[in-house]
Amino acid sequence: MCRLATTFLTQKQAFSYLRKNRTELERMARAQLASGAVEDGIVVLSML
Question: Are strands 43-46 and 2-5 parallel, antiparallel or unpaired?
Fold first, then answer.
């Protein structure tokens, strides 16, 4: 499971970004999982 925290104002904007950048976000989530950076079984990604 993965949680992505965003700075977008609407869910529609966040989903649009997610669809456009899915491959990169999946790569980042796999890297976090491989490094053991998991919080309560959830990979947490945050946009700056």
Answer: parallel
pLDDT digits (tens, 9 = 90+) for 26-48: 898 889 888 988 888 888 887 76
CA angle, residues 29, 5, 44, in degrees to nearest 5: 35
Query: pTM, whole model, 2 decimals?
Result: 0.68
Q: Is residue 32 within 8 Å of 18, Cβ to Cβ?
A: no
Give first-to-last CA distance, the chain, whole Å: 20
Check: CB of residue 42 under 8 Å from CB of residue 3: yes
